[in-house]
Please model this.
Amino acid sequence: MMSSYISTLSWTSAALNTLPKLQSEVSKANTEIATGRHADVGLTLGITTGRSVDLHTKETAVQSLIDANALTTNQLSLTQNALTDIANTANGFLQSLMSVPDTSGGAASLEAQGRTSMNGLTATLNTSDGKRFIFAGVNSAVRPVADYSAAPKAALNAAFAAKFGLDPTDPQNDSQIANITPAAMSSFLDTEFANMFKDPAWGTSWSSASNENLVSRISQNERATVSTNANTKPMRELAMAYAMVGDLGIGKMSASTLQVVLDKARTVVGSAVSGVTDTQAALGVTQQRVASSNDSMAQVVAATQAQISALEGVDPAEAKTRMDTLTTQLQMSYATTAKLMQLSILNYV
Amino acid sequence: MSLYGMLRTSVSGMNAQSNLLSTVSDNIANSGTAGYKSSSTEFSSLLLQTDSSSYESGSVVTDVRHAVSKQGNLSYSGTSTDLAVQGNGFFMVQDPSGQTLLTRAGGFQVDAATGNLTNSAGLTLMGYDIADGKSPNVVLNGAGGLAAINLQNTKLAANPSTTGAFAANLPSNAAVVAAPTAGANAAASSFSQKSSLVAYDNVGNQVTLDIYMSKTAASPATWEVAVFDQADAPATGNFPYSSAALATQTLTFDSYGNLASGGSISLGVPGGQTLAIDMSGMTQLAANYTPLTASVNGNAPSSVSGVTINKDGTVYATDSNGRQSAIFKIPLATVESPDHLTPVAGNAFIANQESGAAQVGFAETAGVGSVVSGATEQSNVDMASELTKMIVAQRDYTANSKVFQTGTELLDVLMNLKR
Amino acid sequence: MSLTTAFNTAQSSLLTTATQLATSSRNVAGAGDPSASRKITVTTTTADGSARVVNITRASDNLLYERTLRATSASAGQQAVLQGLGQLQLTVGDTTSSTSPAAKLGALDNALNTYANAPDNTTLATAVVTAARDVAIGLNAATMTVQQLRGTADSKIADAVSQVNDLLTQFQAQNTAVVVGSENGTDVTDALDKRDAILSKIAEKMGVTTVTRAYNDMVVYTDSGATLFETTARTVSFKSTPVFDAATSGNSVFVDGVSVSGPSAAMPVQSGEIAGLTTVRDSLTVTYQNQLDEIARGLVATFAESDQTASGAPTLPGLFTPGSASVPGTLTPGLAGVIAVNSAFDPTVGGSPALLRDGGANGAAYVVNTASAAAYSAHLQATVTTLEAARTFDPAGQLSSGTDLATFAAGSVSWLEAQRQSASAASDSASAVLSQASNALSTTTGINLDQEYAAQLELERSYQASSKLIGVVGQLYDSLFAVIR
Model:
């Protein structure tokens, strides 16, 4: 008789006891449908949760590198524009040097062009993107090139006057200039004058820029030089050529001496133009690298997101099916409980 | 052949019937008396000398009998001092004069004045005092050694612990404990397992015994068992106790984990008796430490919370902790022929020549029967048969009186002859 | 069989039926109580043929009951562990959230990388310091959570211990009632039910095993064998520790003078709430704290400044200060609780975040950017490299050594979630076993109302029949009396 005994409590509570479990399962499925992720990611993933956290961190890291690269790209194109500017001016100057006949009238206009170009060069080298001077190297907080009319010009004047015994206050307009021999001029240009554009004179009177360029991380394992500076050879050469033509009083020189100066200027500017082009090419390569690492990082982000979703994601269709099954179970459970509660021998006696 | 004889015979008949009616009335009156044994009346004729030509009417002789051996129904009450005998035995009771009687009337109650167990007739139940382990002092054919069963003055003496048992499975994979072991009672002593048991000293104080088990060797598996008095335990930590171990014992186990030696430990309970703890159930198998048996006898003094009486007639007092101790043994007496016992007032009987002398025995032994606690034996009177007997007796009496009447009338006729 | 016997038998039948009805009504009253067992009236036929109630017993199944006890302990223990891990999980949060030390470390790494790309940008420097402060505060908060959890577990153990003592006192009362009743042969079923219910409650707190002696006298041991109850209740004692820090270790629970919880326990309990709480207090939280401390130590070491002048000055803490003057070389308990951002770097208290780029928080000898170049990135990039380099971690953190800090922090999350996952699975299965065991027990020993009602109907018939019999016997007597005139 007792072989199939069951107590009232266990026969009515069997269906009841499953209700809370079913309800919490429904709420879980509901969350999963809404978010497309596991309801409790940590609990579901367990030991692999660290991998998921890692992926999230990686995604953010790569994203922030992409964001930083936008700034780098911006600075690179700014530098490129400035370099193009410089190259254009230099090319114009070179043309003038080539085409202008060796007359004093032509020399006067060249002199003017030299001075303008010098101003243009210093202005361009002092370009700032609002946060830093782009030609200052790592010493980006300081204006890289001093105003030409101040210290550099004074140094030049002093050297020029001292070499040739000119009026130290205004050597350019001293009539003695006409007496300078081509040999003396050549010697001056190669030694005293050239020294002013070499360190340490260049650093003290002309440039505050650092030789060290900015290095940026452009992808997770790639670093690139992303700037150039005012101390590079082409810049010095340009400054030298502009100063040579603009401030040695070429209008008053003898034709043969003028020829020495102009020849020297042509050589220097020619070398500078090709130097600027090289710098532009180098920066262009960097721009290319930034662009391509951006592309590859975009792919990394996509791949990371795919991995995250593979780890944390829930198939909504599956979740919905589960939800439907659970709802049906829950309804059946309710119905069964209600039915069981109604069943009593008292109703039949 | 005489009218007078006829009158005498009818009178003897009426006497006989009135005897019968007397037993019937007694039986009916006592039909509710516990332990009452019904009486019955048998008749025999007493014939005078007659010859073939005349008949001299005799008379009827009455013989009263008692159905003492007939078992009555048991009526269950739930009172533990209500006793009944299922079988042939009799309770031995004493009347106020000191005479020992036998009875089946077991509705005993504690008499408020004396504390003795007395039944409704005031008879005191007798038994043997076996408190504190005394053995009953039985005199087989007499009342010697019997004492009144008194529950009022029962003071439970504290029973000091004397025997106990402790068995457990000791884990075979336990690590060997580094010296000093628990038995050394040093501050650095270590042990494998600990258990404790409550024992009682002479005055009934609880003494908690701490039992430390330490594995001292792996092969052959050897364990040291050390027993301490917990009262000596230090305030913090396990060791050292303020006095040395009460006893230590070395247990060795064979390769199957069975106990090879050291099956018991004997120790003096502080302020108490020597306690022998049986440890023969100890095993050392590859299972967790599992206590299997733990018991110690003895008890603390405590007021009697109840009395139980066993089937074999042993009276136990139960203290408030539920511990029982035997205090009395109720003997049952048997006689050769119970039906010939002499009934006395109060549903009691006295042994006589015909019944044979009372033999004292104990319940649950052969031919004595058992004591049933919580029930009384109802009277063995059957109402219906008494009533029918009464009807028959009434009719017989009437018939006898008719004979007497006829005899008197005939005498009247005789008297009227002379006028 | 005489009429008197018939009368007697009918009368005893009435008595018996009444007792059975009373038992049945007790069953009906207890139908809703899970701890109530089914009472059974045991009747016997006496020598004269009448029925008599011998005693009242209850339906019981010792094996099922012991299984339920074990399941109760296991479930309560796992529940405690799971709750503790749930609390710890708050320090980690969801994988997408930035709560976890791993995520905060990632944010610091990003900020540092961004700053290294533009070292002349003060805003980015401040962002690094802010991220660093986030990491430090996160570690401090996690440490506080961990230590508070230990404190809570400790006080819960104290609560559980006082409850066990209370329950043992109640147990003693019921056990005495059972023993006295059993010896006297009275009905002890209610006391047995109550004693079982109390034992179940004790089992919730700590795993128990029992030995039953004569007269249903029960001896209770912990599942490790320490004596909880034998004739009298043994003392369960515990001294709670009010405040926990990483260097504190909690006290043991003592049962009958033997320590049963904690790392130095002689006979450690295996299951029950106390065992679970002890695991939380002495194992899980301690390991997790070690992990946090190692993360903190890694941070302090990564950002430490070394002497640049070859004058032999010691390496000193930089961006992160460990609460002491030197850089800790080994696992330092509680480091995660005191780690802070050096005020020399913190712009909100007048510090200079540019020290990150230049070095020199500990004096001129530590300056790396001697030229004070605004866009000097070498030091920053070196720091990034150090941050992302493999390090050696203490094995007490239970995570693999020789990984970088971010992997270690992510490993910590993994460890925690793995513990939680296994605890959740264990808890689910333990509660499933418990519900199955208690269901089986209830099925076997519980009360079925319908059956009781059916039995009552049967008893009613029996009562009617006995009454009828008494009536018939009465009538028989009446007819006998009618003869006597």
Remarks:
- Chain B has three domains: 3-67+380-416, 74-156+303-377, 163-296.
- Chains B and A do not touch (no CB pair under 8 Å).
- The longest strand of chain B covers residues 206-217.
